[in-house]
Design brief:
Number of domains: 2
Largest sheet: 5 strands, antiparallel
Order of helices and strands: HEEEEEHEEEHHEEEEHHH
Strand order of the largest sheet: 1-2-3-7-6
Shape: globular
CATH class of the largest domain: Mainly Alpha
Strand content: 25-35%
Number of helices: 7
CATH topology of the largest domain: Transferase(Phosphotransferase), domain 1
Structural class: alpha+beta
Helix content: 25-40%
Length: 245
């Protein structure tokens, strides 16, 4: 698997419908890499063709969104934000098409927050203390992201991965309770408030199974505030509460 073509030509089903936009396409597949004498390694392979974004630095040709995602994965790691571990990035120009590969290690033992909260609605919410620990961990993760002036820009519950079963791998070491995925739209912002408005609005609009009290406590932990919010923070709370499902 030391060549671009070996990864590119793998016949794999996609984990969700591919993204057909930006003048190209982007697809993600799951793959279990065989390892001699050991358990296979779970990987996610993002394959792209002409799936580019344009900026003032690259206004015409643009750059692959996978390249930006790799850069954001590294920035998140430097800021202390848990993400999937990047394993390989490569790109090439083939037949006039810009093709790219971004491979990340599977977050073993994790489930999307979206699936967990769906279970809450069907089976009943877990004990209050357990639920609040989870929401606090999510709030701290997002606060850390925004403290680094990084905006996820597509912050839905399916992009927040929650540790539900500790992996058996001896290399796992300390395992963070919550991690972020899908950072291809992530951006660095001059103003932290821009990150707050965009990401919290997306998260609250798409979160189900959270009570109004859960949401209020979540915001307090995100703001690292006490039981009473300032006037400015109360305004933010009212704006978010109006958008709750």
């Amino acid at each position: 698997m030391g060549h671009f073509d070996a990864w590119w030509q793998l016949e794999l089903s996609t984990v969700e419908p591919g993204n057909q936009s930006r003048g190209g396409w982007s697809k993600v597949s799951h793959y279990r890499l065989p390892v001699a004498g050991d358990a296979p390694i779970g990987l996610y392979i993002k394959r792209q063709q002409n799936h580019v974004y344009r900026s003032w630095r690259n206004p015409l040709r643009g750059r692959l969104t996978g390249e930006r995602e790799l850069r954001m994965l590294r920035r998140c790691g430097a800021a202390g934000v848990a993400t999937a571990e990047p394993v390989l990035y490569a790109q090439r120009l083939a037949g006039g098409h810009l093709q790219g590969l971004l491979i990340t290690r599977e977050l073993a033992g994790y489930r999307p927050l979206q699936d967990l909260t769906a279970d809450w609605q069907q089976e009943g919410a877990p004990p209050r203390a357990e639920r609040l620990r989870l929401l606090r961990a999510v709030a701290v993760l997002i606060r850390t992201l925004h403290d680094a002036h990084l905006e996820h820009n597509c912050l839905y519950p399916k992009h927040l991965m929650v540790l539900t079963a500790r992996p058996a791998s001896p290399r796992s070491g300390h395992v963070p309770p919550v991690a972020l995925i899908d950072l291809e739209k992530c951006k660095r912002r001059w103003w932290r408030s821009t990150c707050t408005r965009r990401d919290l609005d997306s998260l609250h609009r798409h979160s189900r199974g959270w009570s109004r009290t859960d949401r209020r406590r979540f915001l307090g932990w995100y703001l690292n505030a006490g039981p009473r919010l300032s006037r400015r923070h109360r305004r933010l709370w009212r704006d978010l509460a109006r958008r709750c499902p």
